[in-house]
Amino acid sequence: MKYARRFVAGTLTAGALALSLTGCGNSVDPIERLGRKTATETGTASASPSARPSAAPGASASAGTPADEAYKKWGLTAPLQYAPKPAQKPQLPKAAPGKPVVLDRIPVPATDKVVFLTFDDGAEKDPEFLKMAADLKLPISMFLTDNIASADYSYFEKLRDNGSGSTINNHTLTHPNLRTLPFAAQKKEICGQQDRLEKRFGKRPTAFRPPYGNYNDDTLKAASECGISSVFLWRESMQINDFQYSEGSAFKPGDIILAHFRGPSELKGTTETQMTTRMLQHIQQQGYKIARLEDYV
């Protein structure tokens, strides 16, 4: 799917004014602005390792099992670390009346080194990535665009049902820049995809990501009227080999990571599994655990 390349100016943090992140397109060129910084810097929450008595997603019960060896199969030098479900969800910023909360970072304690994996669009449907996500039990929050993903929605259903706790969420019908559309057209894009996803997957999502991270008051009002309670932006965008950061050059606790369902034609010959391996390696190198986004909101 070809998208117009456009950097849209928005209200950014001082550290991000000069930075655009590669977003929902089929190139690694910067075509999508950084998700707007929100009020998630404040607030704390406690997480209890004992909240989930069973093994965390991807963790094996004993050494030497197939799950224990999965990390080696996919190019990692150590097992992934998964955060347990928190005993109490963080206190999120209050949303304006009639609007969903907007988050690019989950307000966890500064000592809680967790990040969240999100994948957008749905253009690439690599069967090897299905195996990788299932082997590693990656908890992925998927934000799907109908005219891109619907050619094979069963692919994303398999990702959802692989035991990792992955979810399917709304990313509009046709991936427009919502800020350029009137309220009625924005609502059609969001509610229309709500209807499609509910019909196909049996559940109406409550999470939404606006294409390019672009939204305005009409977007939030429309999303709320369509049943959306949370709008998710991001703090880091995964490129072919490394991340683009909204600020600095490292994760911060609670960061939401943006990645895409992309293949070699968009990644200069790199496969989606190779890109994901590099992403996971960077997460490991910085000492972070992977958490399931829906456990925290």
TrEMBL record:
Residues 38-66 are annotated as: Disordered. Residues 42-66 have a biased composition (Low complexity). InterPro entries: Glyco_hydro/deAcase_b/a-brl, NODB_dom, Polysacc_deacetylase_ArnD. Residues 1-18 form the signal peptide. GO terms for molecular function: hydrolase activity, acting on carbon-nitrogen (but not peptide) bonds. The keyword Hydrolase applies. One of its GO terms (biological process) is carbohydrate metabolic process. It is an enzyme of class 3 (hydrolase). The keyword Secreted does not apply. Keywords: Hydrolase, Signal. Its EC number is 3.5.1.104. It holds the Pfam family Polysacc_deac_1. This is Peptidoglycan-N-acetylglucosamine deacetylase. It comes from Streptomyces lavendulae subsp. lavendulae. The gene is pgdA5.
